[in-house]
Amino acid sequence: MSEKDFLVKLLAALLAGSMLMPMSVAAQPSPSKPSLKAAGTGKYFLVLGDSESTGFHYYGVTSTAGSWHCEVPALIASGRLGWACKLLGDLGALHRGIKVENLAVNGEDSCSFIAIQLCPGSPISPSSRGGPPPYNIGKTPQLQFALKFLRSHQNQVSPIIFLIGGNDLPATYPASVAQSIYTRMASNRDSILSQTQGLAPPSDVILPDYADPSSNDLKPDGFITVLDKMIAGEAVKYGAFPVDLAHPTEYWHYSFSDTQNNHPSDTGQRQIAELLWAAYRDFLHERKPVPLMVRPTSDHIPSGHVQSLAFSTVPQARVSLKLSFKGGTKSWSAHADGTGHWKVSWSTKGHSGKVLVKACASKGGSVYCVDEYFIVT
Predict the structure, then answer these.
(1) pLDDT tens digit sequence for 291-349
(2) β-strands 366-376, 353-363 pairing
(3) What pLDDT shows up at residue 15?
(4) In order of start, what are the domains of the chain with their CATH numbers?
(5) What pLDDT does residue 260 have?
(6) Full-model pTM
(7) What is the maximum span of the chain, computed from C-alpha positions, in angstroms?
(8) CA end-to-end span of the chain, whole Å?
(9) Contacts of 165 (CB under 8 A, 6+ apart)
(10) Contact yes or no for 306/346 (Cβ under 8 A)
(11) Contacts made by residues 5-13, CB under 8 angstroms, sequence distance 24+
C-alpha cells in the first residue's frame, strides 16, 4: 500500500466515525437524544462483551483467563490480566478507588448476551462459552446481570465499555446470508444498548471495534467496516462514542496477538488499554483526538534490511519515535508534514531479536502513543 493510499484509508476511517470523535448529523439533535457531554468516572466502570474483553490470551504456551476484578496489582501494568485491568489503573488517576465490574464472557455472541443460547451457526461451541464472571452464565445472560448491576448501583457507573459481535459470524458462510447475520447483530446490539442506556445515565458509554483485524475484515463489505458503520449509528442514537481499535493495530499482528488463539497478547492488551484511555481522556477534556497509525515495512524483518516506519496522523502533529534494542536505543522527533505524514528508516544491519517501538503523536493537548515491537531475524 502506498503512503497516499494509507492516508486515504485513515481519512476514510475518520469520516466513517471509526476513530473517536463526537458524532453528529446534519441537523441539530432533538432534545430527546442523549448529549455527548462527558459524565466522568463513577465508583465503577463496567465492561460488557466477549473474550476480547475478558483478558483471555496466551503468553508463550500458557493461557491466562484474565481477571474480572484485577486482584493481582503486580500484573496489571504488564497487560497479563487484560486491558480492563490496565485501564482500571489509568482511570484511578481520575477517580481514586474506582472499581471494575467485568461481566464479559469468553465465547459470547450478541444472541447469548441476551438469552444464553448462541446465535445459529455460531463458530463457538457451547462448551467453550465460559469464564468465571460473578454469575452463573448457564442460568443468567450477561444482559440480565448487567441490568441488575446498574439498578443496584444507580448513578455510580461510568464509563461503560461495550464490545460484542465478533463471534456472531460462522466460520464460513455464503455472501448471500451475510446481510441477514449483520441485521441480526445490529438488532441485538440495539436491544442491549437501549436497555442498558435506560438505566445507565449519567454514564459515558464507549463503543470500540475489534483490534488486530484481518485484511478481509477491512474490505468494504468486511466485518470491521460493517461494525464501524453500526457503531457510528449507535453513537448518535445513544449519545455514546466510538473508539477505533482496528486501524491503529492493523500492521502489528506479530507483536499484538498471541501465538495460540489469536487473542491480544500482553502487548496487545496494553495497547488496547492505551487506545481506550487516550480516547476517553480527550473526550473528558473536550479535546480533538490525534489519531496515529504506524506502518512498519514488516513486523518480522531479516537482519540487514531497512525497516521503515511510516506515520499517519493529523497535519503538523508533533511526532516522535524511539527504538530500543539489545545494546542501545535510537530516537527521532519532528513534525508531521502538511498531509500528516512522517517516515523514519533504520538499518537492521548488526541487529537481531526484539526491537521495542514507542511512537507518539501530539497536538492541541491530545497525546497518543503506540507501544509495539518487531523482530529482527
Answers:
(1) 899 999 998 899 999 999 999 999 999 999 999 999 999 999 999 999 999 999 999 99
(2) antiparallel
(3) 37
(4) 33-286 (3.40.50.1110), 294-376 (2.60.40.10)
(5) 65
(6) 0.82
(7) 63
(8) 24
(9) 109, 110, 185, 189, 227, 230
(10) yes
(11) 6/293, 6/295, 6/310, 6/312, 7/312, 7/339, 7/340, 7/341, 9/247, 10/247, 10/291, 10/293, 10/312, 10/340, 13/228, 13/244, 13/247, 13/291
Rounded distance between C-alpha atoms, residue 215 and residue 250, angstroms: 8
Read off the amino acid at residue 136.
N
Neighbours of 107 (CB within 10 A): 22
Side-chain half-sphere of 171: how many Cα atoms within 13 Å? 3
Place of cell 523514519: 344
For the segment 174-208, what is each residue's pLDDT rounded down to a tens digit?
777 889 999 999 999 999 999 998 887 778 999 99
Residue that has been written with the C-alpha cell 441539530 in this structure: 28
For residue 196 the three cell numbers come to 442498558
**Cis peptide, bond prior to residue 213, ω within 30 of zero:** no
